[in-house]
Amino acid sequence: xxxxxxxxxxxxxxxxxxxxxxxxxxxxxxxxxxxxxxxxxxxxxxxxxxxxxxxxxxxxxxxxxxxxxxxxxxxxxxxxxxxxxxxxxxxxxxxxxxxxxxxxxxxxxxxxxxxxxxxxxxxxxxxxxxxxxxxxxxxxxxxxxxxxxxxxxxxxxxxxxxxxxxxxxxxxxxxxxxxxxxxxxxxxxxxxxxxxxxxxxxxxxxxxxxxxxxxxxxxxxxxxxxxxxxxxxxxxxxxxxxxxxxxxxxxxxxxxxxxxxxxxxxxxxxxxxxxxxxxxxxxxxxxxxxxxxxxxxxxxxxxxxxxxxxxxxxxxxxxxxxxxxxxxxxxxxxxxxxxxxxxxxxxxxxxxxxxxxxxxxxxxxxxxxxxxxxxxxxxxxxxxxxxxxxxxxxxxxxxxxxxxxxxxxxxxxxxxxxxxxxxxxxxxxxxxxxxxxxxxxxxxxxxxxxxxxxxxxxxxxxxxxxxxxxxxxxxxxxxxxxxxxxxxxxxxxxxxxxxxxxxxxxxxxxxxxxxxxxxxxxxxxxxxx
Length: 529
Known about the structure:
Blueprint: H1 7-26, H2 40-52, H3 69-81, H4 85-111, H5 115-126, H6 128-133, H7 140-159, H8 164-179, H9 185-203, H10 207-236, H11 246-254, H12 275-287, H13 293-310, H14 312-327, H15 338-344, H16 346-350, H17 355-369, H18 375-392, H19 405-426, H20 432-446, H21 455-467, H22 471-484, H23 489-501, H24 505-519
Helix pairs in contact: 1-4, 1-5, 2-3, 4-5, 4-7, 4-19, 5-19, 7-8, 7-18, 8-10, 9-10, 9-18, 11-13, 12-13, 17-19, 17-20, 21-22, 21-23, 22-23, 23-24
């Protein structure tokens, strides 16, 4: 008896299988838990524990800047299973395994049944960065899944009049919740809303009916934002619908020293842990008055926009640099470098489905698909363009690019299918125009990039092992950091503390002297990572 497995089930099995293998390989490594409380994943874990302990309004000041929806999600897991990182990893893996199935459904809505939805689902199921980030204490995997579900409902509402308003409302709610995890999702929603107004007005032969339908979509978004906005008003007496970090992030991505990626602001703190308070204090000092969180954000927004307006040529060059970073296969680290993780997890290198491959095929397919005019396809285009815009207006790092993988995987699947069909029919290479487009995309994706060395990553690993009292491993990684970058002061400071803790005062004095010679400062805090 022949057993037939449906395509969505096949995709889900591939997704969940890879995730379980990765989970068991990851568990013995240091990357299974947050390496530092000063980075985003450590901060989310700490906030989640505070919420789970009973502070369900999350009254900590940081929650005005960092929308705590993801921390609430983790807090619920803690209440159900205890402070178990295993429970968080597995829950996120299960949610992440649904994203490829939703991508399959979206591709089938746009292109109909056939090879394209299957290819799109498989590419997404095996996409290695999805699996990696699903195993960090970050909200990206949850946001991506919500975006996929929202887009599936939105395209369904466009394609049929049956339950259209309910679909649009539910889609808006899902995108609104996603925006409370990754606020830049709201820009993609704005792009889609503008396009939907035109499409539905033409489809319904009335701009009023089209406006009503889009209003329902917008109402769903506002409905999702309302509880967080109300919570902020109760605690801070301030109107903060999406968190008060937007202005600071805009300034980080668009000041005179911006490189196109994340870089701490002068006056914005020296570490993640004081970024919020220092940037707020700097805004108050220059304003000469006490500011609410939204007012501090507005201060940085005005400063960034003024700088952009005063230096249009430099801003144009910066946007071009960000676009090159967006195309490039190199995964710019923010929490941990994926290349560093690959030293501990060979499965990362063994799996070829990384950003470079999906970007090469996806951007090429997108360029060719722009000629088509189907409404459902243009909803996907608008989500993609809005997501790209939301990255370019701020800055580029690896985990922010996860938002565009869903449409890129669908475009890549279409291109692969078109290439298979063309070769099957004509038995000759692709047309010259397509080959030229593919070569140009390949140049942008695989052109040499300035990579970040492992010195900071090794230092963080050293600090992680020092905290666990595994002093030999800690010293090994601090020394690896110094070998790569001898003038990097932080590992010298950490080694000085380590030598004191292991009762080697003469060695501690030597490392402290080196640290002071590099910085001009005496000892920095022990948690300097």
